[in-house]
Design a protein that fits this description.
Elements lengths: L1 H23 L11 H10 L3 E8 L2 E7 L5 E6 L6 E6 L2
Antiparallel strand pairs: 1-2, 2-3, 3-4
């Protein structure tokens, strides 16, 4: 009797997190992605010094230096160029 209840509670807790993660960078066709040059220019306008860009989990990930001189990874939506998240280098 406890097993179905535990499974239901776990599913309720995990499902929204999984849904949010997949919404960060939805499945955008590759021909609709912004170019690396366009992402680099957008990042420069935000104060980032981009060192390299790669595709990562449906996002365009820029390895960059921020305004404070810290290394960061900036994840951009490939179709819109919006910043999805920024991760500092630990």
């Amino acid at each position: 009797m406890k097993t179905p209840l535990i499974a239901a509670v776990l599913f309720t807790a995990i499902a929204p997190a999984a849904a949010l993660a997949s919404q960060d960078c939805p499945n955008v066709p590759r021909d609709q992605w912004m170019s690396d040059a366009a992402i680099t220019e957008k990042a420069k306008g935000m104060g980032y010094d981009v060192r390299s860009i790669k595709a990562e989990d449906g996002c365009l990930e820029a390895y960059a230096i921020d305004k404070d001189g810290k290394r960061v990874e900036v994840y951009f939506h490939p179709g819109t160029g919006d910043v999805v998240r920024v991760k500092g280098d630990d």
